[in-house]
């Protein structure tokens, strides 16, 4: 007997099932047939909502990036002075958020040993979501006289991408990364 569901519910169900299969088998070894089998639905139903496995992956990436960005933004008070903000952020650089702990399928998909490309794509996607908030805070810091650099928008982009680069750098402890990021922000913002 066919089960009829609202389109948004079905689409989310397919995405959630795909994430479980991707996490279990890996992206490259997963097929649309595997996803359909996981959900006990037809392949055609998968294709009704997603044109390809790549589109499902992109939706998973977007969902996960939103979770991480929103959680990190929620934990950050943009009301504090810029120096305090930098110290606060770099003192608690968390590489696994509470959202990630709750959705182990997403975590495993993007952070397992054989998914470095996916992990890097995730970092870049999260970065793009956070940059506008940092740009706005730097503009306000300039208006308040906390910083004097001219191009705050570029400083935000350089600072955030530099931070991501440090997160992806091998051979450093988290403490070393945090200190390097903190000092780089100070230098960039002429603090």
Written overview of the protein:
- It is a single chain.
- The chain has 191 residues and is an all-alpha fold.
- Helices cover 72% and strands 0% of the residues.
- α4 (53-74) packs parallel to α8 (116-143), α5 packs antiparallel against α10 (174-188) and α9 (152-167) packs antiparallel against α10 (174-188).
- The longest helix is centred in the C-terminal third of the chain and has 28 residues, at 116-143.
- The N and C termini lie far apart (67 Å).
- It comes from Caproicibacter fermentans.
- GO terms for molecular function: DNA binding.
Question: Which runs of at least 5 residues are low in confidence (pLDDT < 50)?
Answer: none
Number of domains: 2
Give a short account of the largest sheet. Answer: none
* Overall 3D shape: elongated
The share of residues in extended strands comes to under 5%
Helix percentage range: over 70%
Rg from C-alpha positions?
20 Å
The strand count comes to: 0
The helix-strand sequence is HHHHHHHHHH
CATH-defined fold name of the largest domain: Tetracycline Repressor, domain 2
Topology, element by element:
Blueprint: H1 7-25, H2 32-39, H3 43-49, H4 53-74, H5 82-91, H6 98-102, H7 104-111, H8 116-143, H9 152-167, H10 174-188
Helix pairs in contact: 1-2, 1-4, 1-7, 2-3, 4-8, 5-10, 8-9, 9-10
DNA-binding region: 31-50
Domain HTH tetR-type: 8-68
Protein name: Bacterial regulatory proteins, tetR family
How would you sum up this structure in a few lines?
Residues 31-50 bind DNA. With 191 residues, the chain is an all-alpha fold.
């Amino acid at each position: 007997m066919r089960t009829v569901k609202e389109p948004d519910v079905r689409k989310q169900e397919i995405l959630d099932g795909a994430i479980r299969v991707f996490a279990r088998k890996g992206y490259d070894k997963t097929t649309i047939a595997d996803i359909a089998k996981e959900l006990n639905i037809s392949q055609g139903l998968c294709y009704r909502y997603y044109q390809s496995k790549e589109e499902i992956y992109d939706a998973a990436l977007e969902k996960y990036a939103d979770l991480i960005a929103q959680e990190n933004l929620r934990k950050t008070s943009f009301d504090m002075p810029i120096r305090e903000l930098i110290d606060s952020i770099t003192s608690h650089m968390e590489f696994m958020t509470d959202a990630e702990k709750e959705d182990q399928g997403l975590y495993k998909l993007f952070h397992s040993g054989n998914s470095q490309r996916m992990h890097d794509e995730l970092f870049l996607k999260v970065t793009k979501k956070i940059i506008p908030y940092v740009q706005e805070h730097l503009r306000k810091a300039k208006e308040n006289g906390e910083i004097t650099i001219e191009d705050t928008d570029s400083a935000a982009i350089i600072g955030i991408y530099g931070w991501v680069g440090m997160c992806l750098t091998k051979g450093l402890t988290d403490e070393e990364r945090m200190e390097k990021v903190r000092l780089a922000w100070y230098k960039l913002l002429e603090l």
